[in-house]
Each structure stands twice: as C-alpha cells, then as structure tokens.
Amino acid sequence: MALIADILLIAGALGAAVYCLVVARKVTRLASLEGGMGNAIALLSAEVDDMTRALAAAQGAARGSTAQLADLSVRAEETARRLELLLAAMHDFEAGSRGGPVHGTAADARPVPRAAPPDDAEVVGAPDEGADAPGVFLTRRMRADRVAS
C-alpha cells in the first residue's frame, strides 16, 4: 500500500511539474512585447494618443464652424428683417397707389434711413391734386417751403 501511495505521489508531482511548465511558457508569451498582451497594450496606448489628437483637432474645427455659423445666422436674420420690411413697404405702396387701404401701422414698421434727394430733384407724383397732396419725391426747397407755410 505504501508503494502505491508513493507511485501516485510521484505521478501527481510530475503532472504538476508539467502543468507549471506549460503555464510558465504561456505567461512568458503573453507578457512579451512582440506578440502578446504587452504588444496589444502598446498598440492601444498609441491609438488612444492618436484619437486624443484627432479629437482636439475636431473640437477646434467645430468651434470655428460654430462661430462662423453664428455670424451667418445673424446676417441672415438681419437680411430677413430687411426683406420683410421691403415687402411690407411694397405692399403698402401698391395698396396706396390703387386707392385701397394701407395695411399695418406706423408702429409695425421700423424706419428705414434713406438718402435725401439732391436739391435739383423733380417732384414725382400728382402735384395738381391740391396743396395737401405731397409728391413722392420733393426737393429740399419744396420741403422747406411746406414747413414755412
């Protein structure tokens, strides 16, 4: 019985030695930088660095695009306001020339700065309709005469 126990003990020790040898080789291959886990970690670290640089570049481009888009948006809103005002003025002018009602009030529209006509501008409109019917364009002298009278 003792002999069988010694043989089983020696066989178990040899099996454990072979198992430890196999595991040691696998751990060595896994830890090597050429083809194991170390190589994978090094590659992933390099990719993380590349991605960090790419992300920083993309954030810079996005900031620039955001500023540009905000400027374009402000310009578009200003242009839309001007177009709405021009369309409203055109509708008011058309309604006024047909003798129909003029829509909107003076409070609805913002005043548009306009250049004054030159001194030698002619009166365009219907000056024969009476003294209270102003022409579309008046010279500065005619405006001064109206204010004085």
Question: What would the keywords be for this entry?
Answer:
rod-shaped, 149 residues, 2 domains, 0% strand, mainly alpha
Question: Can you offer a commentary on this structure?
Answer:
The protein has 2 domains: 10-114; 115-149, no CATH class. It has helices at residues 2-31, 37-98, 140-148. It has 149 residues and is mainly α. Helix content is 68%, strand content 0%. The relative contact order is 0.04.
Summarize the main sheet: none
Oligomer description? single chain
Question: What is the straight-line distance between the termini?
Answer: 143 Å
Helical element count? 3
Q: Estimate the strand proportion.
A: under 5%
The helical percent reads 55-70%
Contiguous low-pLDDT stretches (5 residues minimum) are 123-136
Task: Categorize the overall geometry.
Answer: rod-shaped
N-to-C SSE string, H for helix and E for strand: HHH
Radius of gyration over alpha carbons?
Answer: 46 Å
Helix-strand makeup class: mainly alpha
What's the total count of β strands? 0
Task: Tally the structural domains.
Answer: 2
The average pLDDT value, as a whole number, equals 77
Structure at a glance:
The protein is mainly α and 149 residues long. The protein contains three helices and no strands. 68% of the residues lie in helices and 0% in strands.
